[in-house]
Amino acid sequence: MADVHVVAVCGSLRDASTTHAALERALEAAERAGASTELLDLREFELPIFDADRDREDAGDADELATRLQAADAIILGSPMYHGSYSSPLKTALDYCGFDEFRDKTVGLLAVSGGAFPVTALEHMRSVCRALNAWVLPHEVAIANSHSAFEDGEFAESKLEERVVVLGRRAVQYATIEPDPDSFESDQNIGAEGK
Predict the structure, then answer these.
(1) 5-177: which CATH topology?
(2) Which residues pair with 78 in a beta bridge?
(3) Separation between Cα atoms, residue 11 and residue 15, nearest integer Å
(4) Cα–Cα distance between 41 and 32 in angstroms, integer?
(5) CA 188, CA 180: separation in Å to the nearest integer?
(6) Which of 56, 81, 86, 163 lies at a CB distance of 3.0 to 4.6 Å from 113, suitable for a disulfide?
(7) Is 143 in contact with 118 (CB distance < 8 Å)?
């Protein structure tokens, strides 16, 4: 698995982000499984709100972000849940991508919520990835009650930590899985063409 490259995208802009901390842990597990890893912190990218009339090359760091995702064998998307869905920074980042970045790639999902389980955020990210013909891991991570998920930089519950670790390992394990046929959603995903 030494040739597998796993890239995680953090959709949280908070300084003390639980999403960021959990993604770091998933990538540590991916490294232990033999992969090279990279964490893309969206705070470090200039990504204007997506405008279909603007070329990606003229949209801040959008082209760089897409290039780095295209180089990945597997991608882990992490987001806090806002209003029952995933974050607008992650949505903007995904809007600048298309089939070239996601088609036939393995994608893992992680969502964080200050309250109840962020299931709808996971469902929405899964739908977007399928529309881009990605292969989304069945194993996903939902971190509820994020204010108590970590204590002194460590997971408060070993079972939750194990779910995050497994996500990192599965991203490596299934990075070279034979892809599924194109999804029916992708046939109608005109916006993903030519990005």
Answers:
(1) Rossmann fold (3.40.50)
(2) 10, 110
(3) 12
(4) 21
(5) 17
(6) 81
(7) yes
